[in-house]
Design goal:
single chain; 134 residues; mainly alpha; 2 helices; 0% strand; rod-shaped
Length: 134
């Protein structure tokens, strides 16, 4: 009987060894599976990070363009404001000149009328006349 128990002990030890190797293989396979999932998640995270970096670069470039456009618009606004103010001042000067010229013309008419009334008739006849008076 000892021979049979020796064979069965070897068979039991061999079975335990096979089970131990199978268990170790299963754990290694699970670890490899988890490593594969972790690698896939890492790749997805890297891809997301690269996309975020590209988006950030694009946003930075867009901001630089918008900032440049804003500066140009500000300069154009300042230039147009200065031109508007210059035109307003010129218009006010023209209006003031028109008022002054009308006042001078009215004074000249009054002076001519006054002098015509006091001058002898033969002097008044020799004075040049306006186109409306002819």
């Amino acid at each position: 009987m000892p021979k049979e128990s020796g064979v069965s002990a070897v068979a039991v030890v061999a079975a335990f060894a096979v089970l131990a190797v199978a268990g170790t293989g299963f754990l290694a396979w699970q670890s490899t599976e988890q490593l594969g999932r972790a690698q896939t998640e890492l790749d997805a995270a890297k891809s997301g990070l690269n996309k975020a970096r590209a988006d950030l670069r694009q946003a930075t470039q867009d901001l630089a363009v918008a900032s440049k456009d804003a500066k140009e618009l500000k300069l154009a606004t300042e230039r147009l404001t200065a031109e508007r103010d210059a035109v307003r001042a010129a218009l006010e000067n023209v209006q003031a000149t028109g008022v002054r010229l009308r006042a001078e013309a009215a004074l000249a008419r009054e002076q001519i009328s006054y002098l015509s009334a006091r001058a002898p008739k033969d002097v008044v006849k020799g004075m040049p006349r306006t186109a409306a008076a002819k």
